[in-house]
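User: Just a sanity check before I run the rest of the batch. Below are the structure tokens for the first item. I only need the designed sequence back.
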């Protein structure tokens, strides 16, 4: 008798439980819909909408590392899981560069930019190409007969890739950041430096201009295009040589911070008195790899911070 009663009870219990579960599912799905409608009615998404000055508000950060590669350039830029590399230092700096990329857990690049074919910019770029997957490699349309350049071409071919020629004003995206090609503007130059790919990178309200070794001739061509050159950070052209960073260009960019990638006691006498005095006169703090080593600069889309204090205005040549 007792056993039968118990069985009946558990049967009723099961029916009841099923009804409760079914209604929970129905109520939950209705509740889910209404929650979505409610959130949409609050317009929370518009909080990360376009700003008045048309710059996009961003979440997260943009990290720019000016890697100490001695007398040369190599700049790692990351936004979220996206990465790009501008130049690959000298061949001598191979271990430092590859070691840094490894220590930062870089796995692949959206973009690699070789600004121009000089050894202090592409010396170890072939090693980067051989070691990492990448989507796009930008390179100016100019060739040299050096072994360094040949090595880079072979490495790119080995990855079944081709150089992408820079197009003025063309825009690329790097996660929530974007960059625009500012130079080179001509097909032919006497100086290889002027073939340098120059870009303006924007992240939220912050922006950077990376110049490679572009000289004042290329700077004047950029100025003629009447694009907005204002930027928070200017990577000073050609290691602080007096052939770059003309007064007009510097005034147009009017950077809050300047960064110089330059080797300690280099044989080129970089940076020069002309450039350093120009920066000093305007009170622009200068970060330099010969004094600070690798420099990390972080933007949250609103403000920019550096991992080191600014350097001196000391110079070597004129
Ligand atoms: Zn250079």
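Assistant: Here's the designed sequence for the first item:
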């Amino acid at each position: 008798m007792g056993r039968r009663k118990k069985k009946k009870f558990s049967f009723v219990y099961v029916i009841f439980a099923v009804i409760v579960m079914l209604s929970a599912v129905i109520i939950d799905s209705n509740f889910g819909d209404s929650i979505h409608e409610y959130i949409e009615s609050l317009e929370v998404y518009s909080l990360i909408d376009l700003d008045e000055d048309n710059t996009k508000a961003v979440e997260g950060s943009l990290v720019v590392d000016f890697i100490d590669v001695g007398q040369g350039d190599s700049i790692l830029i990351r936004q979220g899981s996206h990465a790009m590399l501008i130049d690959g230092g000298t061949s001598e700096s191979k271990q430092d560069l590859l070691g840094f990329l490894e220590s930062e857990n870089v796995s692949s690049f959206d973009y690699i930019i070789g600004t121009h074919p000089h050894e202090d910019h592409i010396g170890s770029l072939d090693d980067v190409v051989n070691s990492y997957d990448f989507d796009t490699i930008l390179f100016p349309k100019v060739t040299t007969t050096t072994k360094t350049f040949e090595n880079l071409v072979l490495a790119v071919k080995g990855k079944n890739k081709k150089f992408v020629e820079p197009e003025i004003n063309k825009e690329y995206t790097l996660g929530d950041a974007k960059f625009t090609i500012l130079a080179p503007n001509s097909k032919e130059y006497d100086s290889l430096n002027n073939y340098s790919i120059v870009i303006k990178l924007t992240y939220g309200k912050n922006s950077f201009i990376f110049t490679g070794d572009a000289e004042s001739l290329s700077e004047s061509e950029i100025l003629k295009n009447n694009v907005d050159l204002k930027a928070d950070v200017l990577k000073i052209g050609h290691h602080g040589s007096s052939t770059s960073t003309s007064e007009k260009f510097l005034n147009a960019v009017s950077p809050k911070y300047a960064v110089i990638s330059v080797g300690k006691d280099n044989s080129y006498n970089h940076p020069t008195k002309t450039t350093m005095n120009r920066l000093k006169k305007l009170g622009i703090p200068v970060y330099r790899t010969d004094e600070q080593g690798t420099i990390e600069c972080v933007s949250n889309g609103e403000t920019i911070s550096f991992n080191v204090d600014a350097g001196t205005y000391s110079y070597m040549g004129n």
